[in-house]
Structures are given as structure tokens and as C-alpha cells.
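COURSE: Structural Biology Practicum
ASSIGNMENT: Worksheet 4, Part C
STUDENT ID: 0417
INSTRUCTIONS: Below are two proteins. For each, the amino acid sequence is given first, followed by its C-alpha cell string. Answer the questions at the end about the second protein only.

PROTEIN I
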Amino acid sequence: MLYHLLFPLHASYSFFNVFRYITFRTIYAAITALLISFLLGPWLIRVLRGHQIGQTIRRDGPESHLTKEGTPTMGGLLIVPAVVIPTLLWANLASPYIWIAVFVTIGFGAIGFIDDYKKVIRKDTKGLSPRLKLVAQFALAAAAAGLIYMDIGIKDTVNIPFFKNVRPSLGFLYIPFIVLVIVGSSNAVNLTDGLDGLAIGPSIIAAGTYMLFAYLTGHVKIANYLQIQYVPGVGELTIFCGAIAGAGLGFLWYNAYPAQLFMGDTGSLALGGALGAVAVMVKQEIVLALVGGVFVVEALSVIFQVTSYKTRKKRIFRMAPIHHHFELQGWAEPKIIVRFWIISIILALLAISTLKIR
């Protein structure tokens, strides 16, 4: 919005020429998201506490979590606006990539909100049934995949990390592939959200990494120099990723140990879906498994635990997701969180290295 209002003034006032630069608008999108989080955070916490919208803690989990009973949840109500509003303010709204990213973020956030609403407000411990939640996620992701593949016309090739010019074409199968990336990413972030700041830290790191990927992929000269696939116009997603990073930092202010606010499914599903959609549009789908390695391990720990128990009646971990396993082994919660952040940073650096090591 600000881009469309102020950039045309550059013909009369040279200062407004800065609005043409994606880097400038990304910085201010991140700052705007941070300010929204800081301004709305205390108000949202008061409202949630006033309506007794607090987290319910599982009795079969680590005993240390029982003290978190009643902590305000549904923090996604802070994250989603803090991502969407700066994006709409600073991005070029003529870009279809921006609208798809916003659509996925709001859509998955809405699914999470309904689940949180049933659990926390309606006191239905089951929330949305797993089947219904997955159906909604797959339907939303399929709509996004259709727009990405059929409307925008993203190529149906998949870049393989560490290999130059290895880009297998999936044809029509690219649509279900997109769906799996978005849904898988959304649920992986959701499963990681179990400790104070555990999910938002890697989300910020992943957003920062894809902020770089989006800028490079949308810059024809740099893309050609790095020999990565150039996608015209996708550079605008740099601003969207900057907004995620800014909103994440603002939310972390309240979510850091000991948390004043939990993100809930409203936030985790929205963030995961957004990262998955961005990964597809900047043609770095496979790399998402590396950038979000912490999310992948958390999700796999649940899958392996459930499969092992159903087939062998034996558990692999003391408790899944794996962060609870480390808790039950005696690791302090802050130590687990910070170590997972460190791992996320290392994985992000490895992912960035794929631009040159091929």
C-alpha cells in the first residue's frame, strides 16, 4: 500500500525513489512487524487473561510444565496480523506471490484458531478431529498449489541441493508435491511448539534464510551468476519473509522462557504453512528440510514413536516429540531451547552454502 502511494512521488521528490528497493522495504516491513508485536502484545495478553484463555497442560507430560497451566495461548492472534499488515503496507500488491503467501498464512491460521477455540474456550480437549484438521489443511494447500502452478505458472521442476542443474520435472505431480510441502511444514512447526520459544526461534531463522533465497531468486543477474533458477517477481517475498522475522522477534519477547504467551495452533500452523508456501515459490522446496531440520526431526520423532508403539508395543523415546524426551532425561528447558536454536543456525548456514557448493 505504501509502495503504491509513495513510490509514484519519486518523479517529483527523489527521496521516494528508495521505495523501489526491496531491501529498503524489507527492513521497514520487519520493523513494522516488530512494532505491531510490541504494541499489541501486552494488550492481547491482558485480554486473554481476562477471558481466562489459558493453556491446558497434559498430565502425562513433564511435571515442570504443570506450572504453565493457564498461561495465555492463541498467540497466533498476534503473529498473523504482525506478518500480514506490514506485508500489505510495504510490498508491491500487484505481485501474485504476495497474495498467495498471505492467503496461506491467514488460511492456516484460521484452521489453528478454530482448533484452539474448541480446546481453550469451548473446553473440548480434542479440538478439531485430526482427520478434519488434515482435510482442511490439504484443501487449503491444494487451492494454493493450484494458484502457484496453474495461475502463476511456476515451473514444475524441483531443485536438488548440492547438484548443479539437477532439476527433475514432476509434471502434474508437482501439485500434490506442493501440497505435501505446505501441509508437512505446517504440521512440523506445530509439533515443535512445546517449549517456551522453541518453535519461534527456528521459524525466525528459517524466515531469514528464505528472505535471502527470495531476494537472490528474484534478481536476474545474481540468479544467473549463482546458476539458480530465476523466478521473475518472486523477490517481493523478501518483504513477506522480513515481516515473519520481525513478527517472530516481537512474539519471542513474550514467548521467551518463562513464557507470558503461547502461540497455539493459530500461530504454529500459520507459520509452518507460510514457510512451506515460500519455499515452493522461490524454488527451494527440498532445502526446506535442511533449513527446518529441527522441525523435521520433531515430526519424525512423533512418527517413529507412534509406529514403533503400534507395531512393537515399544517406545523409542521416553516421550515424543523429542524435546520432551530430553526434558525427561533431565535437560533444563532453556538448555534444550538454546541448543535447538544453535542447531537451526548451523542448518541454515548449510542451506545457504548449497547456493555455491554444487
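PROTEIN II
(use this one for the questions)
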Amino acid sequence: MTAGYGFTGFLDDYLKLSKKNSKGLAGRYKIVLQTLFFLISVFGLLTDWSGGVPHLLIDTKLTVPFIPTRYANPDLGWVYVFFAWIVVVGTSNAVNLTDGLDGLAIAPTIVSALVFGVLCYVAGTSLEIADYASVNGVRQFVGVPVHQYLGIAKVEGGAELAVFCASIVGAGISFLWFNSYPASVFMGDVGSLALGGALGTIAMLSKNELVSAIVHGVFLTEILSVMIQVVSFKTTGKRVFKMAPIHHHFEKAGMSETKIVIRFWIVSVLLGAVALGSLKLR
């Protein structure tokens, strides 16, 4: 998914540079390629075809934030594939839209990867936590798997996903060193689509699709501002924001680029803390 979405972004950047055209790859072709790579991943790598009847190898149940899985764990069945497509493609394009100011997209990406790293590790580790339980009528300490203690879904290979998340954090910090204002290195679509696709896929594999709406609050706000602007202008002829995505709205309102970026970073960190807090509040 990361490589496929990076390839899609590469095509867009290549067309912009070679054709000297700021439009690059048309939006509909981006969606087609993103959907193609998503379907290849899900049906080619995450589906078992050996039994004659296709069987998804990924959990189609949703984990609801702040609620233990024993109380809320709805199973979407094959509808989950469409839901996961929205999460992955939406996250990829949201990160792409956020990448409009120096350092604006990469810092929330680092925060998201760090949060997902923790969530993946606790969902996939074989470690146990001592907890009270009744054994033969006697209340005593017993070893309980971390995921069971926290009331979250078990994720096979979650600890390996945590390593991938850590690599994004490390690469992101290194990139931010050169991407901070004024930037000397730029992410481009090859970076933003790849990172967004990676984060969306991690959310899918780690069963944190709904939690990702909290972790990716900055990205979600950016893409929603564009959608609201387009719908409003087409239906009423009026714009809700001075300019979309929303970080440009604040620029038009007179706020400096540095202040916008830092405040978005702060919001991202707070949202990451809320997402991690959902573990304890379960």
C-alpha cells in the first residue's frame, strides 16, 4: 500500500515537473490507482481463496473508542471492505491536502505513527499483566493478556506493525529537520500519498479505524473543509472559508505560516493523547 500510493504520487509529481503543469495527474485517475492498489492488497494479500469461497484474513469487526470490545464490537462482514477503502483512501488524500505549508503535514504524521505504534504493540504483544480474578472462588492475581486487560481486539503481528510505525516516526523526524520553515526539502505527492496510505492501512490492520478519526483529526479537518467548500459553492455559490483547505483560510485571515503550523502541531499532539487515553478509559 505504501509503495503503491507512493507510485501514484510519483506519477503526479512527475507530470507536474515534466509537463510544467501544476495540475499533474487528474484527481479521478488518482482515485482509480488508489482503489486499484487497495483492491490488490485486500483481495490479493489479505484474502484466502484456497477453500473455493473467498475468506478475508483481516478482522471485519470494528473496535469502538472508549468502549470495551465485549460491549461494542460490530461485525460489518464484506461491507467492511468498502468501509476500509474509505479509511485508507480518505486518509491518503487528507494527508495530501494537509501538505500545504512547511512542516504542516509531517508533524501530525509523526504523532499518528507514534500513537499507532503504541496501539499496535499493546494489541499484538504476548506480554501479560497481573490482574485480579476469581479462581475456584478465591480472588487472586492471574496473568491476563494486555489486549484482554485493555478491552481491545487482538491483532496478530501487531508488534511487527509497531516496528513499521517506529520507522515512520524516525524517517519523519529526519524529514522534519529539513522541512521546517523555511523548508529546503519538500514532501510532494509521492510522500504525502504514501504516508497517508500507510497510516490508513495501519488503522485498518490494527483495528483502529474509528480511533484514527481522533488521531487524524487535523487531516480530517483539512479534507472536510475542502468538501464543505466545494458543496457550498456548487449549491449556493458562496464560500464557507476564505480559501480551502482550512490552513489557507487562516493565512487569508492574517495568521502567519509559522503560527498556523505550530498550532496545528499542538492540536495533533492533544488528539494523540486523547486516542491513547481511550485505552485507559475502556
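ANSWER KEY EXCERPT:
Q1: The chain has one domain: 2-122+157-281.
Q2: DSSP finds eleven helices and four strands in the chain.
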